[in-house]
What does this fold into?
Amino acid sequence: MAAASSSARLRRCVVSPAGRHSASLIFLHGSGDSGQGLRMWIKQVLNQDLAFQHVKIIYPTAPSRPYTPLKGGISNVWFDRFKISNDCPEHLESIDAMCQVLTGLIDEEVKSGIRKNRILVGGFSMGGCMAMHLAYRNHQDLAGVFVLSSFLNKASAVYQTLQKSDGVLPELFQCHGTADELVFHSWGEETNSMLKFLGVNTKFYSFPNLFHELSKSELEKLKSWILTKLPREVEGQNE
It folds into this structure.
């Protein structure tokens, strides 16, 4: 199935820009959540929507599928995992299938007139992992990647791809709580160090006493990074 047609099946929640749309951001939720759920969580933490004058924010919802860590229970997840650990193989078949679907979302934005270097992808937890696979293995010409409370497995296919890459890579913005008991802070740090070693320009911020959750200071930092990567364009400057 073509990527564009399969992406049409993804439910999504969109926050439109207040002014002229000149950039887009795809924000992927964590396992078991939804696009609408992530948007509402962010709104709760910030006391307002994450919104911009010129950036359209797309919150897609992962399709329902059996999820091995839930003993095969059905959940909204971007891909399957053998277990929640950085020390096991990746479930590449499901990751690659979802990369195709999410490529359709990127293609839709490009068709609507947004250049790829004006598109950011990122996510929370599993969504951040998905975003790294999507950008670093399939779309190295995106504006950047952001990941919150996320990690890659030790032998990740992302690392294997980057070992063979010699172009300019999307910058990575990464945040992690030191008290995270689900995705350990050390897993996030290790992921960041490895990506930096492989040529990615990275920013890593630790948040003391933060669990597997979002914080206001983290989201405000993310918001200012988004504006540095996707500044507003002056009329006529986007040729």
Remarks:
- Residues 13 and 59 are 5 Å apart (CA to CA).
- The first helix runs from residue 3 to 7.
- The chain has one domain: 12-229.
